[in-house]
Amino acid sequence: MSRTADRAAQEAALSRAVWDVLGEQGLERLTVRAVAAAAGCTTGLVMHRFPNRQALLRHARHLLHEKTRARVEALESEAPSPRAALRSVLRQGLATDAETRHESVVWMGFLAAAVADDELVEMHRANNRAWRRRVERLVGAAAPEWPAERVSTVALGLIAMAEGAAAFAAADPEAYPPRAQERMLDEALTSYGLGV
Amino acid sequence: MSRTADRAAQEAALSRAVWDVLGEQGLERLTVRAVAAAAGCTTGLVMHRFPNRQALLRHARHLLHEKTRARVEALESEAPSPRAALRSVLRQGLATDAETRHESVVWMGFLAAAVADDELVEMHRANNRAWRRRVERLVGAAAPEWPAERVSTVALGLIAMAEGAAAFAAADPEAYPPRAQERMLDEALTSYGLGV
DNA sequence: TCCGTCTCGTAACAAGCGTTACGATAACAT
DNA sequence: ATGTTATCGTAACGCTTGTTACGAGACGGA
């Protein structure tokens, strides 16, 4: 890690190292030393950038959320129609390639870590509620005639399905190939009356 | 822990202690000492019952699977119809009370631990595939006229949805109360054409 | 060029970890 | 009642952990 990089870039690089270790070695081996090794520096730099391990994890969690939010907003703005936006946004939540599988493992690692960290669970709730509101808004735009309760219920069904499928696929990629996940999503959208 | 209890009972008690620690303190604090304390014994007994920590976790994971399997089979056999069986079996997978929320946290803890343990991930895959086959069979019985691919796709959508909803509700019970989860499940079943 | 400051690697610390060795005590056969 | 065996708690081991202290070296102003 170069000596002249600015703090924000270093913090981001360390956060990426956190994701790497969490995704490849798991929460139990997510140590400060392992993160430093993955980032190509020493524990000294890590502890100069963050007051403690907790802060490092929280920053990495925050940046992961920002990353997925940016991706989702880009997909949403590029979509040609509300229903296409809904499908596209849900689709990116699946685990259909190496990167998204990795993200899903990391996401679950943070969720498991949140059991022992009040601020992590608070971050999870805030992010998850924002995600839910976004999908509710997309469902509402895709089916303007629906009553609010149906919008909310269907949105919940869709985000839960995407999250569960990502977890399954991350843990057993052979059993849940991309096509099976996409068929699952399309079948659900069609059945709800939200097909394109 | 009494001195005359047989080995199987002790192993089960220690497994329950593993679930307790995993659900209340998280994977990072799931130490042999914490498990012993939760079981009301010392690390000596734990290490006399299991060759190492890994074996303890694997046994606890196995017993958790057996527990949910027994519950699911009882629900299935008691159901008055295939569609009622399907709904009942999926409903038990949600996190609608303190016990099932706890189970969901434990389940995710084991999944996070599986990243660093090949046998745990193998156990997860075997159990998950069996679970998927069971729900496929139930969907097939609930809609005998469906082609196999639709049965498989809808079954995947349903188990993914239940799993995701359980994860959400375990991490944020206030945002995902039991009624919201049940409405979500019923709306999905109805939309798929599997309503009772 | 020299000095102060800031960066970050090195090395150490106490605490906690999984695991092992050993001894005390209970249970049982004789 | 006594000797044997199995059970399990105690205490220690080596190791890894998060964290701290300190020093070497790069950078910038005078």
UniProtKB/TrEMBL annotation, chains A, B:
DNA-binding region in chain numbering: 31-50
Domain of life: Bacteria
UniProt entry keywords in alphabetical sequence: DNA-binding, Repressor, Transcription, Transcription regulation
InterPro entries xrefs: BetI_C, Homeodomain-like_sf, HTH-type_TetR-like_transc_reg, HTH_TetR, Tet_transcr_reg_TetR-rel_C_sf
Pfam family, one: TetR_C_6
Residue ranges of domain HTH tetR-type in the record: 8-68
Gene3D superfamilies given in the database record: Tetracycline Repressor, domain 2
Protein name as annotated: TetR family transcriptional regulator
Biological source species: Paractinoplanes deccanensis
